[in-house]
Amino acid sequence: MSDERPPASKAVATVVNRRPGRRRLLPKLLLACTVGLVTLKIADVAVGVFTGTQQRHRLRLAPRAELRHQSKEFDYVFRTNRLGLRGPEISFTKPAKTYRIAILGDSFIAGYGVAEEHLLTGLLQQQLQESAKKTRPNIEVVNVGRVGTSTIRELDLYESLGRRFQPDVVILAYYLGNDLAEVVQEQTDDELARWSPPGRLRGLTYRCFPNLYLELAMIRQSQRQLREFTHRDESEIAADIRQEALARQRNPDDAAQRFESLPPEIRHDVATGVLSEQRVVDSCIEPDRLLRALDPSDADFERSWSRTQTHLDKLQSAVARDGAQLVLVLIPAPFQLDRQSLEFHRQLGYEVREAWLTEPVRTAQALSDWSRDHDIPCLDLTDELRKSEKPLYFIEDVHFNPEGNHLAAMLISQFLLSRKLCP
After folding, report:
1. Cβ proximity of 87 and 119 under 8 Å
2. pTM over the 0.85 mark
3. pLDDT above 90 as % of the chain
4. Does residue 18 surpass a pLDDT of 70?
5. 161 and 21, same structural domain?
6. Are 293 and 181 in contact (CB under 8 A)?
7. Same domain, 24 and 108
8. Which of 58, 106, 246, 353 is the most buried (most CB within 10 A)?
9. In which band, very low, low, confident or very high, does the pLDDT at 11 lie, cut at 50, 70 and 90?
10. How far, in Å, CA of 268 to CA of 317, rounded?
């Protein structure tokens, strides 16, 4: 008989011999994971410190950007300076005998739709310099506008950038067409501190590596903006609308259905990039958006106006502490002046009112009352712009065309000079 053990015994011996190797492998894996996580955390902290991720994400400005915008209504290059603002490079240090005006606002001030030579801020500077030839001060108008913002972020823009220019006057340009609706979408500093993305995994990732998470979010946002004027399939646009509806806590099926019900020519224009996708995203998700901006119900007004008023008060205090004068300028929406614009927005699916073409709106009255109560000079451009016989806005895009920027700059210049707010 042979003394050789059966094969089964060999198998058992083999398993027994492998177990110590597995036990040695587990600590190595745990160590590798720990080192990897620690490395990521160090990278996260370093990115936050050296690139200022939190502030960059909050301000959402793209330094030295150069992007061509094309539509049926305009064709120009949107350029920004080293700070991510439109207009020329201006030093934070104010030269001697220089009078500075900083203008805060949204895409109307950023000059969406027009090239540099038609920027409202540049035109205003030219007009004020012409009128100041006798007193000979050097007048500079600084553009502190950002596309897609409201009073909350405009306060941040002033505190982070605007005040550093040492302005003598700070103008807040308030767009009546959406600022009151957008103020409930942007988060206050307290809300940002408590914010976490939806989903357990995303929430955990953000808590562990907030700066890396926000950097990736900014990259995704830039990629989405680059798609704005490109050819896309309608199914992709519908998917974007569904995703954004979920983010705004609206019914995605209803929003997608509204997109499918839009006139074929509008869907085609969005798909081919000649109409901004954002125009239909908002109308499909929030058809009541214009009502909430201009003539909100009591419940909507209480919610949005309290946030607006709080940040107007903070801005006034900040400007006063810096020794400057705050001025409020109200920019009407095109559908308050032009029936063609009103009808186009009705086609997009928005709820609109005929009275907007002739009557005051609730938001303008609230801002006027706030200005009077706080002794803040306030210019409502609505009535003067209604007198113009020339088109002042891009109908489909809603922003000022070159003529609109020129007229608005002239009216603001006259207001500042008449109130002795500029030498």
Report:
1. yes
2. yes
3. 71
4. no
5. no
6. yes
7. no
8. 106
9. very low
10. 48
Domains identified in the chain, total number: 2
- The two tokens of residue 391 are 């088109």
Identify the residue whose tokens are 């209480």.
302
CB 392, CB 409: distance < 8 Å: no
- Residue 284 sits in which domain range? 85-199+228-423
Alpha-carbon distances, residue 250 vs 196, 241, 259, 260, 303 (angstroms): 19, 10, 14, 17, 18
Distance CA 181, CA 304 (A): 7
Question: Rounded CA gap, 303 and 297, in Å?
Answer: 10
Give the 3-state secondary structure of residue 177.
Answer: coil
Lookup result for tokens 């003539």:
295
Within this chain, do residues 128 and 37 fall inside the same structural domain, yes or no? no
Q: Report angle CA 170, 174, 175 to the nearest 5 degrees.
A: 150
Residue 61, in any domain of the structure: no
Residue 240's CB is within 10 A of a number of other CB atoms, namely 18
The residues pairing with 172 across neighbouring beta strands, listed in sequence order, are 104, 328
- From residue 392, alpha-carbon distances to 250, 389, 412 in Å are 34, 9, 15
147/235 same-domain check: yes
Closest CA to 170 of 103, 86, 91: 103
What are the percentages of helix, strand and coil residues in the chain, rounded to 5?
55, 10, 30
Tokens matching residue 380:
């409502």
Residue 2, in any domain of the structure? no
pLDDT digits (tens, 9 = 90+) for 348-387: 999 999 999 999 999 999 999 999 999 999 999 999 999 9
